[in-house]
Design goal:
3 helices, DUF1330 domain-containing protein, 32% strand, 4 strands, Dimeric_a/b-barrel, DUF1330, globular, alpha+beta, Alpha-Beta Plaits
Length: 95
């Protein structure tokens, strides 16, 4: 069953977060992830607003979780720690 990787982000250090983004994209693609949305327009209807929102689709929830725990993604994530406030979740979808 496909899964969506959904991140809500407030960037606090654009330079460091830019390095994260450069490395994270290839790590996500290497695990079959395809971006559906990256920082586009949005309307926050409930909850905490984050100015950057990202959605990627993976073939399975397990693929998305494996990506997160991969050495390549963790190396990218080292640049985001301290450079952003983030929430990240993976959810199965029926489409």
């Amino acid at each position: 069953m496909p899964a969506l990787w959904i991140a809500h982000v407030t960037v606090t250090d654009a330079e460091a977060y830019g390095r994260y983004a450069e490395l994270a994209g290839p790590a996500i693609a290497a695990h079959g992830g395809k971006f559906l949305a990256r920082g586009g327009r949005f309307v926050q209807l409930e909850g905490k607003e984050r100015p950057r929102n990202v959605v990627a689709r993976f073939e399975t929830l397990e693929d998305a979780v494996a990506c997160y725990h991969s050495d390549a993604y963790q190396a990218a994530l080292n640049h985001a720690r301290g450079a952003s406030e983030r929430e990240l979740m993976v959810i199965e979808t029926d489409t």
